[in-house]
Structure prediction request, 336 residues.
Amino acid sequence: MTLEIRAVDPHDEIGLRAWWEVGHAATRERPGTPFPAWEVSRTALPAANPERDTTLVGAFDGDAMVGAALVLAPLKENLHTCGFDLYVLPARRRAGVGSLLLADVEARASALGRTTLQCEAYVPPGRTGPAEQFALARGYAVASREGFKELALDEYAARRTTLLADVGSRADDHRIVVFDTVCPKEHVESFGRLLGMLISEIPLGALDLEDSEWTPERLRAAEERLVSIGRHVLTALAIAPDGSVAGSSDVRVNDADPTHGQVGITLVDPAHRGRRLGLALKIATHDLVRATYPQCVSVDTCNAEVNTHMNAVNEALGYRSIETLLELQKVQPARG
Ligand SMILES: CC(C)(COP(=O)(O)OP(=O)(O)OC[C@H]1O[C@@H](n2cnc3c(N)ncnc32)[C@H](O)[C@@H]1OP(=O)(O)O)[C@@H](O)C(=O)NCCC(=O)NCCS
Prediction:
C-alpha cells in the first residue's frame, strides 16, 4: 500500500465530506455522541477562527481517504503547543496509517515552532484501548485523566426539584443572569477577568498550558464567530452584590444538530465558593437548554478525576460516566 498524506481544503465540500466520513467511521464504536453531525462540521470547519489555526489532513490510498487528522494551533497564547486528533478507518488499522499521519502532524507542529504536542484518547472506563496504546508507543504520556460523562435531560428534569432544594438560600445574595452567546455589555469586562483565572483554577494535571487574557475585544471576536456558525453558548453568570461576575457555566448547542449539547467552562471565583453557586449555575444553564431546545435529549461534560467538587455537582445533576478521557502530551526538542 502506498499512502499519500496531504492537506484537505475545508472549503472543498467533497473533500471535507470525505474527511468527515473517516472521522465519523473511526469514532462510531464509541458510546454517546463522539463526532459532530455533518452539518455542524460543514459549517464550523471552513469558518475562520480568531482563536486558532485549523488544518485538516488526509491519508490517501489512491483516491480513497483511509485516515484523517485535525491539527489545531492556538493563536492567542500557548504558542508553544499544538493539539491534534487522528482517525483511521477501522478496517485499515494496525497497518501504519496512524503512524504516518502522526509523523505528518508532528512535522507541521515543528514547522510552526510548536514543541508541546497534545491529543486526547477515549477509552472505556477503567480500561485501556487502541488510542492510548498507540500514543504511549509513540512517546506520549498521560498528562491528565478525566471522566467523560453524559446526562439524559429527562433524568435532570426528574431531579430538578431536589436540586433546587439543595441550592436553598445559600446563594441568595448573588443573582443569576443568563444569555445566549453574546454577553451583556455591563458584564463583559468582569466576565473576561473570571475567564482569565481558568487555567490556574481547573485541575490540568501535567498539561503544559499558560494563562489567557480575555479582553472585551477578544471576547466579542469569539462571540461573533460562534454566532456566524450557529453555535449557541447558553451561559449563566453569578453576579455578586458588588456587580462583579463571581462564576459562570455554559452549555453549547449547535443549530445544525440541537439534539445534543456540551458543557463548556464552569468556574466559580475562589472568593465566592461554598454557596452552591456551581450547582445553581448548572441548573440555570440546563433549564435554558430545555427551554430553548426542547429537542435536546442529552448533554456531555468532562472533568479531571481529581476535581472532586465538580464531580459531586455533576453526579447530583444525573451525569453518568461513559468513558475515560486521557489527555496525552509529548514535548519535542526545539529545532536548532
Ligand atoms: C489510534 C489510531 C489512530 C491508531 O491508528 P493505526 O493506523 O491503527 O496506527 P498504527 O498502525 O500506525 O499503529 C502504530 C502502533 O500503535 C500501537 N497500537 C495501535 N493500535 C493498537 C491496538 N489496538 N492495541 C495495541 N497497540 C496498538 C502499536 O504499538 C502499533 O504498532 P504495531 O502495529 O507495530 O504493534 C486508530 O486506532 C483510531 O483511529 N482510533 C480511533 C480514533 C482515536 O482514538 N484517535 C486518537 C488517537 S491519539
User: Anything to note?
Assistant: The domain at 149-323 is CATH 3.40.630.30 (Aminopeptidase). The CA atoms of residues 134 and 286 lie 37 Å apart. The radius of gyration is 20 Å. Residues 26-27, 85-88, 93-99, 119, 121, 130-131, 133-135, 137 surround coenzyme A (CB under 6 Å).
